[in-house]
Each structure stands twice: as C-alpha cells, then as structure tokens.
From TrEMBL:
Signal peptide: none annotated. This is RHS protein. It holds the Pfam family RHS. Residues 336-371 form the RHS protein conserved region domain. It comes from Burkholderia orbicola (strain AU 1054). The lineage of its organism: Bacteria, Pseudomonadati, Pseudomonadota, Betaproteobacteria, Burkholderiales. InterPro entries: AHH_dom_containing (IPR032871), RHS (IPR001826), Rhs_assc_core (IPR022385), RHS_repeat (IPR031325), T6SS_VgrG/RHS (IPR050708), YD (IPR006530). Transmembrane segments: none annotated.
Amino acid sequence: MREHHAYDLFGDRRSYVWHHEYDELGNRRRTVRPDGHAVDWLMYGSGHVHGMLLDGEERVQFERDDLHRETVRVLSSKVGQRTHYDPAGRVLQQTIQRSTSPAPLAERRYRYDAVGQLSRIEDSRKGGTDYRYDPVGRLIEAISPVAKERFAFDPASNIIDPVRITETPASRPSPVRPESTLPVEVPKVLGNLLKAYAGMHFEYDARGNLVRKRTPAGQQEYEWDEFNRLLSARVAETSRQSQARYFYDAFGRRIAKEVNGERTVFGWDGDTLAYESDGERGTHYLYEPGTFVPLAQYVAEPVEGIETPVWTSTDRYVPEDDPLQKVPERRGDAAVFYYHCDQIGTPQLLTDDDGDVVWEASYKAWGEAREVIARASKAAGIVAKNPLRFQGQQVDAETGLHYNWHRYYDSGIGRFVSKDPIGLVGGINVYQYASNPVEWIDPLGLAPRRPAHEASIQRRVNCLKSQGFQEHHIISDKNSQTKNHPLIALAGFDLQSQANKIYLPDDESLHPTRSIHNGRHPNIVSTNLSRQMNDAVVIGKQQGWGQKQYDAALRGIIARERMELKAGNRMLNKNHRPWACPN
C-alpha cells in the first residue's frame, strides 16, 4: 500500500511517500519511509511482535511470557532489558544491562499501595521517589532526593498553589467522610482559567486560549487561529529569546515550525510523530506497535521528499513515470539509539549500538524535565537528542511547551493551555491533563487513560474479586438508556471492555471511600450518563467528528463517572456512603 503526504511549506510544494506491506491478518509487516529506510516487524500469532529490523538488520528482539507480555528486550545484541511483574500484573522491576557486564546500567523497582496506586519508585541512577494521593486519586505529593513537590486542587481539579492553603476549623476531617488531604475552603479557579500559580501569571483570550504567560524569567505571548491551533509564539526571557511560527495539516497535526529563521518539517505515521527534519539531519521515531511508547530512533540524512508533480488535463498519465508511485531510495546509513521508558512510557534513557548511555533525563511529577544529559555517541559519532516526553508529547525548546497533537501542554503547571476540542464531553475541566500523571496518559490531548496490558488488568481483577470486590459496568450494559446508545457505535466501543468497568466493594469495610455495590441500581444513574452521551453525539455531528473523537468523548464520560465512584459520591443502591447522591 502506498500513501503520500503533500505539503506547501515555506513556498515549496513537496510530497513525502510511504510504502507499507501487510500480512493476511492486517498487521503491518514492512514500511519504507520517505527517506528510503525500511522497517520490518517480525510477528507471531495474531500480531505479537518478537523483532524489529532496520534496513534488513535485526535491531531489537523480544521475549514474551504466556500472556504475551514483554519479559526480555535485546537491543543491538549489546543491551538487554528485563521486565518483571507482580501477581496483579503490574510492572514490578525493570533492569537494563550490558551483555558484557554483570552490573546493571539501570534498575527501577515499583511499589504500590493497598488500593493499587503507585507509591514508590526506586531508581538506581536517580534514587527513590515517593508518591501520595488524595481520596479521589489525585497526586498531591512527590518526594525525591532532590525535591519535595506538593500539589493542591480545587473541586474542579484545577491545580492551585499549596502555599495559599491554610488549615481552618472548617477544614478538619468530617466524622462521616474519610480524612481529606485538603481543607474544605479551597480557593476556586473561576471558569477553570488558571490566572496565577507558583509565581507565574496567565492571560487568556475570549475562547480560553492562553495568550500571555509571565514568570520571573520573562514573558511569552501566543497567537491562535480560528481552529484554536497555536500559530505563533514570542518569547522574551532571561535564558531564551525566540519568535516561532507553527503549521498544521487538515487533521490538526503539526507539520512544520520556524524558530528564529530555522525551519523544521515533521512527518506523521497515523497518530504518531514519525520524523522531524531540518537542514542538518532527519530524526525518525519508531514505536512499540499500536502504542505511543517510543522503541528506537534513527538519525539519517534530512528528509527531502520529492517535488510534488503537477499535471494538466491534457497530460497523458503514465504510472511508471509518476514519481509518487516509486519507492523512495535510501541515502546513506542510519545511526540508531534505543529508548528505555518508565511505567507510563516516558523516556528515561537512550543507549547506542555499543550499549553506552547517550541521553538521560530526570523529571518533575508533571513531566517537566528537571535535568537532561546528552552525550556524544562513540558508535554513531553524533550527540543524541530526544524531544519526546509523556506519550504523544514533543517538547519545544523555544517555549518549553509540549506539543500534544490536539493541544499544547504546559508541564510546569500540569495543564493544557487551551480548551479540550471535544468540549465538556472530555470532562468538566477542559484544561485538565490527568488526575495522576504517574499512572495516566493522554497521547492525543483529548482524554486521559491508563496504559495497561489486558492480561495485567485481568490478573488485578482476579485479585480484587478474591477480596470481595464486585464488577460494575460504568456505562450500563443492561439499562435501555445506555446499552444501545448511538455513541457506543460511533466510538466503536465495547461495553464489556475493562475500560468500562470498575471494581467496587460490597461492604463499606472493604474500602474507605469507594461506592458500595450491593443492591439494585437506581435508574437516575443511567439517565444522567445517557444525557451526557446525547450531548456528545450532538456536538460530534455539529463538528464532524470521526471515531477517535467519539471514542475520546465516551472515555471522558466514563473517566468522570469513575472518579465519582472512587470517591464514593455515587449512590448506587440503598447501601451507600453518607455523603453520596444518585447523580
């Protein structure tokens, strides 16, 4: 199969041609990219990957357990990465080791609390980090050897400055509700428009797009188009001075930028950033199939594409002469670097073909890089670079913002800087990234979700059931208002998937906050959810959504209801928490 992307950028019309091959099950087995380099995937069964080749040379090998989870990854035959899981299927340990050395390059161990939240990471290179959460699962503290980060939120989950909060008599724990980590009298962010945080000040336009950010270091100004896409940025700060312009395709994917006169072109492979190319080199990104988790990058000659051909009605078309029909030719070799990511797919290290660490980073809780170290690779003869951050995000050095396809994310405040393009369907807080950045991701900039292996989920489910928890469909598969709702078909969503389930105690003694699942559910719960689903369908038809937008909207509805159930706010039957209500 052939596809080509034709762009008119900087006064130059060029096309970038891809060639793909698929097996009989529809799995992509081979791709020749626009620069002529070929990527092959070795698979077994229904599409489980056990190897990756670049230009015919095997670069990555995988070993998997009986549940098809990755247990061993061998990179360039020089480095091995092992992953261990606990009985609930969660990642317990990751070890990176050279084949010639008994000592590991890096080792990470993960610990979880009684309700399954990540409570501690022990990193052999960076030390230990402890995490603490409030009753609804929002991250409120991250303590590492170099910093103690504290976070607070208003009722709509807007981040607010903890130093503004003081305990009052009204904030003391209620006798009927579990102790909260925050007082009742919390400052509220009106309209979800964060105006000030940690010495920073923010201004917005009438559509809720951030137009000015002032910090002690200086000021940034932003200009937006009619589709709420960032058009330009002007930065005047102590450490950087820049003017940038940004360009997008019809899908809202960023295809180019110009910063202080330097131009970069971006290429896409479906939903994922495939490459970036400037006048010096092209950097390509390869991902674990079907995910946004980076697996490797290779650096080669700049991606030049071909001049877009122009035909008139009198020209005779000869397919053999059409440059768009030809497979791109490779120019030169490629230097390969391998990603080593954490439990949510955020890059921690890059190693080269010799097994040397050539790039590493440490992060603050919400994804801001605290320290980045890039080294020259002896094997490749170049310095490794990596702009990838949280899944689906690419950091812009000129602003510090993370481009996240449908929006830009500010890792300094843990929020998006423009409204959710799917509106309130994506959640009542249209700027929120996630309640918990160490366990949730949002690769599309539309709706947060957990990155989990289905087999791992099933093990955790079995563990919860054995403790007395019951399965609850968040969107009911039995209620007539929801089970055949049009939104489900538009989203291509399976109500029986784990994404639509939560496990609730059948007795209040099993969990301090979760809603109790013991008795007949009132109809009003499904009525409320059905209304939200109706709104999503109406907005989607008005805006011409595709399946991905409908799916993100439905998952947003489910995520909000999940939070209510986790907090015990939902009254599912006569057995309920004292503070619960039916809707």
